[in-house]
Design a protein that fits this description.
This protein has 99 residues and is an alpha+beta fold. It is built from 4 helices and 4 strands. The chain has one domain. The chain starts with a strand and ends with a helix.
């Protein structure tokens, strides 16, 4: 279950993806499969090659991409990997808000 984000934030994330950018959307998240995670960051891009290359620099495998028919395919970043990537991407403000 996702919560803690607005429709405007989702719209902005989708617009950045549509422009071919690597776009990030972090929100609170509850899933029994990941009891230690309180949030998830979706890192998406319309250009799947670009997304695969971006993810590879962080050790993410292309098989981990959540492929969506609507064009908003993304990696789900959780836990320590989420924290590592957000720090390296200069998104410490997100870490403070959601971790």
């Amino acid at each position: 279950m996702a919560f803690g984000i607005s429709k405007e934030q989702v719209r902005q994330w989708k617009a950045a993806i549509d422009r071919g950018e690597i776009a990030f959307l972090t929100h609170y998240w509850i899933d029994d499969r990941f009891p230690d995670s309180k949030s998830v960051t979706k890192a998406g891009c319309r250009d799947l090659g670009k997304l695969v290359n971006w993810g590879a620099q962080y050790g993410l495998k292309k098989e981990w991409i959540h492929h969506r028919k609507d064009g908003y395919s993304h990696f789900d970043l959780l836990g320590a990997k989420q924290e590592e990537i957000l720090k390296k991407e200069g998104m410490e403000h997100t870490l403070k808000s959601f971790l």
